[in-house]
Structures are given as structure tokens and as C-alpha cells.
């Protein structure tokens, strides 16, 4: 029985599929969350984005509740949306699946420099931008000032919450200076 559970847990961990899980304990209690790790006979499940450790010997079974076929990568068929910056001075395009920008970036340019900066972003389920990388393919400038300003502005963007999304979703934000 333990070997079967370990094999099932390893399958969950080794697969690239992100899914919601139900862990049923031997006491009959059911814990719903995302199984993230199995190490030293201890299962780590995230419930409301908080880790919870469960000894494998206390586990009766693990189930997939919901299959999430999307892995968070940027897809070519994702539509490009446009929005004005928070100050209204710049046009911003963004491409991220199943998300709407609810807080536009605040942009400024204290120079006469011009160009397009494409920023790769990683967004979590709550819509917060976790990581940014400016100057990716599509950028028309390599000016350090504009790249830095774009990264800083993108860190302040907020997207709608989407709890059925993968833990991290990749997207692109294009800023035209």
C-alpha cells in the first residue's frame, strides 16, 4: 500500500501537469490543495498558498480534483490587448492568457529616448507580477534607461485574480516609449 502511494505521489510530482489535489487521510479527513513535494516520506501540500506537511503514513489516498491542461507558457494564439498607461501618456500592449490588466503601469520618460520595450512577465494566480525581464525579442531599443524604467513599471502592474490558472503564468508586456 505504501509503495503504491509513493509511486502515485512520485507520478504527481514528476509530471508537468499542474492540478488541484485531494489528499484523504486515514482519519477520513480530506485536504484540498496543490501537492508540491514528496520528500523523506513527507508530503507537502499547499492550501491557500500556505504549505502543510503530512506524513505519508497518515495518507490514505491522493486524487486529482481538477485537470489544468495549460502549463502557464505563452501561447501564440493568445490575443494582444491594449491599454493606456496609468498616466495616459503611453500605449501598452499585453499578451497573457485568461488575464485582464486591472492596474496599468505608471510610466515616465525623463529623456528624449524612444523605442519599444518588450518585457516578459510571470504572474501568479492572484494577479501579482512575480518576475520581469525586459529587452526580450521584439524590443527595438537596448537603452539601459528605458529597459530599467519598463521593468520597474511592470512590477507595479496588477492582473485579475484567476484561481484556476497555473501557479505561474508567462506573458508579454510591450511598452511604446
Question: What do you see in this structure?
Answer:
Helix content is 14%, strand content 44%. With 177 residues, it is mainly beta. It folds into two domains: 2-68, SH3 type barrels, CATH 2.30.30.100; 81-176, no CATH class. The strands form three sheets. A five-stranded antiparallel β-sheet has the order 4-3-2-1-5. A hairpin with a 2-residue loop joins strand 3 (42-47) and strand 4. The model is unreliable at 1-19 (pLDDT under 50).
Keywords:
5-stranded antiparallel β-sheet; 177 residues; 44% strand; 14% helix
The portion of residues forming beta strands comes to 35-45%
In angstroms, what separates the terminal alpha carbons? 61 Å
For the sheet with most strands, the description reads:
5 strands, antiparallel
How would you spell out the order of helices and strands? Answer: HEEEEEEEEEEHEE
> Runs with pLDDT <50, length 5+?
1-19
| Total helical segments | 2
What's the quaternary structure here? single chain
Radius of gyration: 21 Å
User: How many beta-strand runs?
Assistant: 12
* Structural domains: how many: 2
Shape: elongated
Mean pLDDT: 86
Helix content: 10-25%
